[in-house]
Design brief:
The chain has 4 helices and 5 strands; from the N terminus they run αβααββββα. Strands 1, 2, 3, 4 and 5 form a 5-stranded antiparallel β-sheet that branches. The chain is 32% helix and 32% strand. By secondary structure, it is of the alpha+beta class. Keywords: Cell outer membrane, Membrane, Signal. It comes from Maritalea porphyrae. It holds the Pfam family BamE.
């Protein structure tokens, strides 16, 4: 009898755990930010095609850059997973760079992933100024001469 009760308790605990696990999958949402870059669109962007065709196939670029006589278009696709509690995590990022010559023809393209990126550390040091850091009242009293 005691074995039967503990088996029922164990099975009910497993069923509660399985239900919680199934519901946790419903609490996350995946979405794409930026462009939806497909393999078909990337295949159409090849050396020699015009800038107008690239804009027609890929859309307006998210960012442009000019290097001398050459110009580059950048398209960024980011796949994000968000929990019901508002926590976001980047699952995948793809950056497509399309390079044009001075005749507005594609000379090259590059596809970068999240693994190609680098984390850049920011430095929070302050550059020291000349003189002392004084409050507004100290500056006001310092400007008065008695």
């Amino acid at each position: 009898m005691m074995v039967m009760r503990s088996a029922i308790r164990f099975l009910s605990l497993i069923s509660v755990f399985a239900a919680a696990l199934a519901l946790s999958g419903c609490l996350t949402q995946q979405r794409t930010q930026g462009y939806d870059i497909s393999e078909d669109n990337l295949a159409q962007v090849r050396p020699g095609v015009s800038k107008q065709l690239v804009e027609f196939v890929m859309g307006s670029p998210q960012s442009k850059n000019t290097f001398g006589d050459e110009e580059a278009y950048y398209y960024v696709e980011t796949k994000i997973e968000q929990t019901a509690f508002g926590l976001k995590s980047v699952k995948e990022r793809t950056v497509v760079a399309v390079y044009f010559d001075k005749k507005d023809r594609v000379i090259d393209k590059a596809v970068y992933s999240l693994a190609d990126g680098r984390v850049v550390e920011t430095v929070s040091r302050k550059t020291p100024g000349f003189g002392q850091d004084r409050s507004f009242v100290e500056q006001l009293l310092g400007s008065l001469s008695f």
